[in-house]
Amino acid sequence: MSLYVILIGAQGAGKGLQAKLIQEHYGIPQLSTGDLFRAMRTRSDGLARKVQDIMASGQLVDDATTNAIVEDRLSQADARMGAILDGYPRNNIQAAFLESRLAQKGAGVNAVLLLELDLFTAFKRAFGRVSAADGASFNYYYNARGVDFAWVQDDQGLFPPRLEAALAGGGEALRRRPDDASADAIIKRIDTYLQETQPLIDYFESKGIVRRIDADQSIDAVWADIRRALDSA
Asked: Following CA atoms 98, 99, 102, 103 in sequence, which dihedral angle do they give, to the nearest 10 degrees?
């Protein structure tokens, strides 16, 4: 039996980590549209060249092209019996296309996992997170043990203070995602998430396949809820 899962959640909801757990447990690949777009830069076929031209022009990739990219990826051997879709579909047009293509294979979307998190917590999880080279993660607000955090003032006073972090005792400098360093950028991403996802949630709720998961729990508790939701889907 196939298993196609859509992951929806605000930044900081833990989608990336939970997607890895789903992938390992159920043996289906994670399909992130961001990764798919980046992969097109290394290809030379017609679809890839079209995407490269669109991105080079600074335009957004249109629905039809995005659908073609996802369809291309779903046709690969590792995704023929299921996939975790992250960042797709982004609207009802893409959702209808996905359902149509899966129906042609005798399959469908088994579950839409909505990782629910209040927006202030989502902001703090994104703005405060840093990571080490080995993948270990920390957060200014939630997991600061063993890390020296510092607010560094701009020399000319033109910009807000920036958050820097290093392992305690003069250890490794920790990294922040470039798009997490700006509070304004995070708020804009949250606004975009709300505008884009509510119509999708309504669309899939009408089909009875949305599973709401409380993302403000421990990683293990969230994973246990996801496993129960997928096993019953």
From this structure: -150
